[in-house]
Amino acid sequence: MHSLAAGYFIIRRIKEKLIVSGAAIVFLLLAGFVHPFFALISPIAALALFLVNMNKLIPSIKKEEAASSREFWMFIGSLSYFIFSYYHYSTNFFTCLQQSF
Fold it and tell me: Which of 5, 19, 31, 70 would give a disulfide with 38, using CB separation of 3.0 to 4.6 Å?
């Protein structure tokens, strides 16, 4: 019974993708042959569909993570490494540039 539900889910997802692909092809054909205004409507429609389906595809976080979490301090550490390396690169770059000319 479980595999039947999984098969139904896969078929439903393929059907949704075919509908979206068909709509994209129709918009492109309309943009090329009917009126260039459809070239403006097509990205707006794509963005609208993306925002509508975003809640289905991306899971939401149930609670906020604590400030003492490991991921937070990993981010702070990588940010400090990035800032230090940028400072180090910029100061040495100009020194080397002055010595070469």
Answer: 31
